[in-house]
Amino acid sequence: MSVLRQEVIVSGRTRRPPGLADVARQAGVSPSLVSRILRGDETVRAREDTRRRVLKAAEQIGYVPHQLARNLRTSRAGCIGLVVHDVGNPIYGEIVRGAQRAVSRAGSILMVADAEAITDQARLLQIAGGGRVDGLLWQMAGHAELDELVRVAARYVPVVLVNSESEGELTGVHLDDERAAELAMGHLLELGHERIGFVSGVPGSRVSERRRRSYRQALRAAGIRRHAAWDVEGGWDPGSGHHAMERLLRARPRVTAVLVTNAVVATGVISAAYDAGVHVPDDLSVVAIHDIWFAERLTPPLTVVRLPLEDMGERAAQVLLDEDASAGPASIAVAEPAPELVVRASTAPPSR
User: Fold this and answer.
1) Assigned CATH class of 75-175+316-321
2) Given 82, 129, 189, 317, which residue has the most CB atoms within 10 angstroms?
């Protein structure tokens, strides 16, 4: 792992790194209060704006706890952290399985955390800055306020982004989302569909935007005019898929097929269709990205594009363990095995 440098070179001489007193002076509080806040002491009696002021001051002046510096130089925790945005999401379960393979080979353990549970910077510093992990894998999901935390974590431990291209100084490992959506659209077009909708993930998700780009390109290449109402924002859970499909069903002309950004969201899409008396695939064909375990057990079984989620998790963990993340930012695409269309009973030619 890379060692966090504790010296600042100014005009050819070494200056001591910032200490607690410097943070306290910047924040206008006592050093003892700074120490307790940065340790994540939940019993400390301090207003929330004071906590934020201390954390901001520490970040501004580049303060790093002395114990952290010693840990980075001399020891390893034997643990890699994986941060996801919903630990119950089965898509992330496959990523976890792959990451676990690489981590176990290295003689370490994998700790999984939900991003929503570490929104407080003090809590994040306990994990990333307290010597508890040797590095972090961070699954990006498009939640700007949560994904911003990764930049805080990267000041303390090596970080590799999962299911993301590189961002700033951070290496990212991602899948071929464009090709996946291209295969899905090709299948629907070959069946004869022209009125095709798209249900995305959360607004701002780069994964979702890559899939949306392929969706739009496929319509253009087929000479089909896209209606804005066919392209709706969703999320990453079944409820968001249900709401998105309700909006899509109100669009005119009504779509005969829909590409859904992932299989979890597709469960909500199919549920909303049935609630509206729209039968899959007789009235509506549905295809989704990712072949999760339940996809073939839905009614009807879901047509999907299979992507190598486990391989991506394993590759991301290996990059972190091999210290490749410290060699400079890179976008690493997991191209093998290639995206694969798995045709099941949720797609059929449009009814005439």
Assistant:
1) alpha beta
2) 317
